[in-house]
Structures are given as structure tokens and as C-alpha cells.
Lipase (Streptomyces coryli), 413 residues
Amino acid sequence: MPGMRHRLLARAGTVLGAAGIVAALTVAVPAAVAEEDFYTPPSPLPAGANGDVLKSQQATYNNAKATRIMYLSRSAKNKPIPVTGSVIVPNAPWTGPGDRPIVAYAPFTAGLGDQCAPSKGLTGQGSGDPAGGFQGSYVDALLAKGFAVAQTDYEGLGTPGEHTYVMRLSEAHTVLDALRAATRLPGTGLAKKAPLGIAGYSEGGGAAASAAELASSYAPELNIKGATPGAAPADKAVLAKSLDGGLYVAFLGYALVGIDTAYPESKILTDLANDKGKEFFEAARSTCTGDAVSKYMFTRTSSLTKDGRPVSAYLGQAPFDKIVAENRIGQAKPSMPVLVEHSIFDDVIPYDTGKQMAKDWCAKGANTEFRTLLGTPLVGGHATAMPDAVRDSAAWLDDRFRGKQTTGNCGKF
């Protein structure tokens, strides 16, 4: 087993590195404002509108102007929360029609520890986790098209509290409010009515998809031209079975922490977890992606519960049945065109999960295009398909911002 673990870790490191290296960003921080102070929200939290900027911190990012931000958003329970992120504007001019577009980038799984916050990794102050390369490669592809990027850290990453990992409402709110914050941040040159887009992969694909289908009710004033969710974890019930005991079981552990945080009535730690389970969840709360994958691979969730049942066995009973239902993506019609992509060799999130989400949107009359990605078979399909998703997302959004129409391919997949 140790030999297998080392081989898998080496393979995972190669795969993660292939997605790109995080761009170096040097933060110009006033001497009186240390990094940890920036991520500490004001207390009490000021009143304001969703997307209002609470504080900002200037930085530079290669050939771009970057600003860390803290802004107001809403939790899964619709309570006001502080959220951090970044707004990055390329120095090169936008060559398309109208105002420079802004794309909300919903990050790939970074982890649960505050040191894993994507805005820290993008600013060269993060954990050094290899998964950070995914964030940089996606941001760079969007900037290369001339788009500004509004990146969210989500609820509880960097800021106090736990990260509500893959929780639909919270992640949708933080993605949409990052766009609002970008249009309100002074000194960027971005227009308040700029054309907008949404992009993300894996956890970010789920957040992007959630934002796409909730935009019309939560942020109807936003001028969103398109969304590109890739490898979206749309159905948590499927993932509870597919991840259990596998290489990426840590992501299932992350999801349980997310549920426990967003829905404390679930009482996962107090009522369901045994001592080993409590230790697992407590330790997972401080990890970033690479560390969590290496520590917890092949863990069976039946070894973490008091009655020896796997997590999937609980999902049909209260309160988990309602929680799973509320977090299923595909329930509402996106008001903008969407490009959904998923690797047929995905070893983390089953291919049929993303395909079914696209079909659900088609059934509601959404302008939906679904594309099958490849990636490598067996181990690594999820990660190795991402470069193609990044390229396709940037190109597809560029077409939308340049006024090219799309009719999707519903009924053909």
C-alpha cells in the first residue's frame, strides 16, 4: 500500500502540475496592514448591499492590475457574510465591442484551511499546494482574452468560519456577488454595466452552474452573457457513492464539513460520526487539496460512522434527503446561454452527472450546449481534461462577448 500511495501521489502531482503554474503576484501592502489583518472582517459586520466592497488591497499580477477584496455576500441560510477574493484587470486593452467584460472565476477545490484561500495563492501568499496551478491557468486564459477576472474565495476560506464546500446557495451567492463587487471597486476602469460571464471547473464548475441558475432570482440586474461550468458536482448523492473508498475520498469529507457548516441541524459530528470520524473531520478542516488527497485516500466512510453505515446510506433519511435535494444543480433554468463540459474519463465526478445537469437545463428550455471532454483514462481524467475546458471556456465566452449567437445542442446528447 505505501508503494501504491507514492506512485499515485507522483501521478497526481504530475497531473496537477500539468494544469499550469500559479502566476507570481507581488502584493504592495501598507506596513500597518498585515495579510492576516486583511482577511479579518470588521466587527460588527457593516450593513450594506450584497456585493459591497468592505476593504481592498492593491497588488500586481504579471501584466495586470490586481486587487484583493473583501465584500458582502449571503450564506446558505441567507445571512450576511464577509467573503474575500481578487479582481484582476489585464493591462492590455479589450479589443472587442463595448466595455471590457468581467468574468467571475469560481475556483477549483483549494481545500478547507484558511491558508488555502485562492486569493492567497494567486497573490503568491498561499500554501504552495499543487492544486493552486489550476487556479492560475484558468485565470491566465481569461486574462489573455482581455477579460477582467472577479475571483471569489467562497464562504469561510480565508475569513473566519468553515468553508461551505459545494453548497449550492452559498457558492452561487459568493460568485454573483464577486461580479457585483468588481463593478463597484473604484480605480479599476471597469464599467458598472460591463458584460459579464461565469466560469469554473470541478468545485468551481458546481459554483458556476449554481450561479448560472440562480442569477435571475438573486442578481437579476447583472448583464451575464454566458456561463461555462465544467465537471460540475451536480448531484451529491451520486458523489457519496462514487468517491467513497477511492483516491479522492477527501472531497467527500470536505462535502460533509460543508453540510455540517451550512446545515448545523444535520448534526454530522455529534450524532453520526464516531471518534475516528470526528478526528477525520477536524483534521480535514486545516488541509489543502493535495495534503487531503494524500492523507485520506481509500478511506471508507463506514469506518467513520457510529453504526458502521457508509455516508450514502444516510442520504435518503431526514434531514439529509432535503439537504441533498436543495443542493442538486439543474433545478432552475439559467437565463443566459451555458456551455457544459465533462470528461468521459472523469475519475472524480462521474461523467453522467454533468451530462444529466445539462439535460435538466435543456428540459427547462435553457440555451445549453454540452461537450464531451477526454483527458486520460483510469487515474487523472478529471485533472487532465481541465486544460481543454479552460481553453474552450475562454473561447466560448469570447464569442458571447463579441455578439456571436449560440443555440446549443439540446436533444443531440
In short: The beta strands are 25-27, 53-61, 64-74, 80-90, 102-106, 148-152, 196-201, 224-230, 338-343, 368-373. The first helix runs from residue 2 to 18.
